[in-house]
Write a structure and sequence with these properties.
This protein has 210 residues and is α+β, with helices and mostly antiparallel strands. The chain contains six helices and eleven strands.
């Protein structure tokens, strides 16, 4: 019985490791189509985002790479501020540390941060590449705001279907979650005990390309 238990444990570990694709540096060289649509299946329903590479080519490329390789599957909408933004990203430090080695160059803002548009959050020079936000209203000040030496947040996509879903994502915690964000990366289960009503992404995938 003891040997059987050990064997079962080993098999379980093998299955788990096979379910997680091994990061490959070549993923970061993939180029996005000029226009494509990504679908997010969430705990509140589905929404689609149309990506325009011309608006921010490097951001579109990175988003395309991340979605193709399941980066946002099973992730939380960890910051939802009413009349401002819905924000989300990957909280698996082992996963996003692979990606962050390959920097996304900064780009100028071409498309304004209007309601329904999507941009990468960033914390300084060449820090785009993980966390995203969708504007819940026209946030044009984000086009030109100076933040840690970088001007503005370049839009690269817009919600074309399911904006009502985006607007229904739980927003009761507002910015309160940000003071405990480290917990999300260290212990997601504990973070969810503190903020149990947070909505989540089931999976994100490329729906169409042009």
């Amino acid at each position: 019985m003891k040997n059987t238990g050990i064997l079962t444990f080993i098999i379980a570990l093998m299955v788990l490791s096979c379910s997680r694709p091994t990061f490959k540096a070549k993923w970061t060289t993939e180029t996005a189509p000029d226009v494509f649509t990504a679908r997010f299946e969430t705990s509140k329903g589905n929404f689609d985002v149309e990506i325009h590479r011309a608006w921010s080519p490097k951001a579109a490329d990175r988003f395309y790479q991340l979605v193709r390789h399941h980066f946002y599957d099973n992730m939380l909408f960890y910051r939802v501020v009413p009349n401002f933004v819905v924000q989300f990203g990957n909280s698996d430090t082992a996963t996003f540390k692979h990606w962050e080695k390959y920097k996304v160059p900064d780009e100028e803002v071409i498309k304004s941060n209007l309601k329904g548009t999507m941009s990468f959050a960033r914390d300084g020079k060449e820090t785009r590449g993980n966390d995203l936000f969708i504007n819940l209203q026209d946030n044009v000040r984000l086009d030109t705001i100076m933040y840690n030496g970088v001007r503005g947040f370049p839009v690269f996509g817009v919600v074309t279907k399911g904006m009502d879903v985006v607007e229904s994502i739980y927003s009761g915690y507002g910015d309160e979650t940000m003071s405990k964000l480290d917990t999300l990366y260290l212990n997601r289960a504990h973070f969810l005990k503190t903020f149990p009503k947070l909505d989540s992404i089931k999976k994100a995938f490329i729906l169409t390309t042009e």
